[in-house]
Amino acid sequence: MNNEPLAPWHRFGYVIPHRHTDMDGYLFARVAPEGMMMVSTQLDLREYSLAAVEEQLPTLREAVEILARRSVHSLSVSGVPLAASLGIERTRALLDDLSEIAGMPCSTDLENHIRALHALGARRIVLGTRWPEALTAAIVDYLAVEGITVVAQRFAGRDLQRNKSADPLADHRLAIEMGRELIAEAPDADAILLPGGLWFAIHAARQLEQETGVPVLTNITSTVWSSLRFAETETVVPLDATWTRLFAVPTAN
Which of 14, 117, 159, 249 has the most beta carbons within 10 angstroms of its beta carbon? Predict the structure, then answer.
């Protein structure tokens, strides 16, 4: 009888856009299967703006180099605002550059959302964010390039500092409120997208799926699924589909 513990079988590289890892790590620990380990490095994004993102690009390249040296099996850059601010063409050119540095494919949370939506067959979605209107509009434009139409949207209009200090339970309630309003406006939507690495929305997402019968995606669920789906490692412990319908989509290549 083998009494040895399950050792980490997938090292998930994640570049966090903030100097600290708190909610990102908590959400990962809740939904990731046993044996999937996060290896993170940090940026210091000051605000939601193109200038702030461009300021962090040299640090981003260094962060990817660090993760590559840690022999991660997958690598993603957290922060939908980073990709949305750069736009799809610049983001994908950057990912090509980062992939060359890492010696493996690199992705972002927003690209992982696109992968997940395609896997679910979701073409018409609703979008709820805690971000300002302009940033939300940039996400809509990014998704449109991939043939994903946002048929209804809500945004809370918050800046980065407010989102960093937000009360988790208040954010949970905000996610439920937004999700219900969005589906009421567009009941034929294929999915609900609630992006935001610092948004405590995983429990709200599960509740909304139960209420609406529509898949609900958050950053951590799309990125964990995508990291396992597109990595060369075998998924030793399956994802828990009670968190989201996405986790019922096989990760085997």
Answer: 14
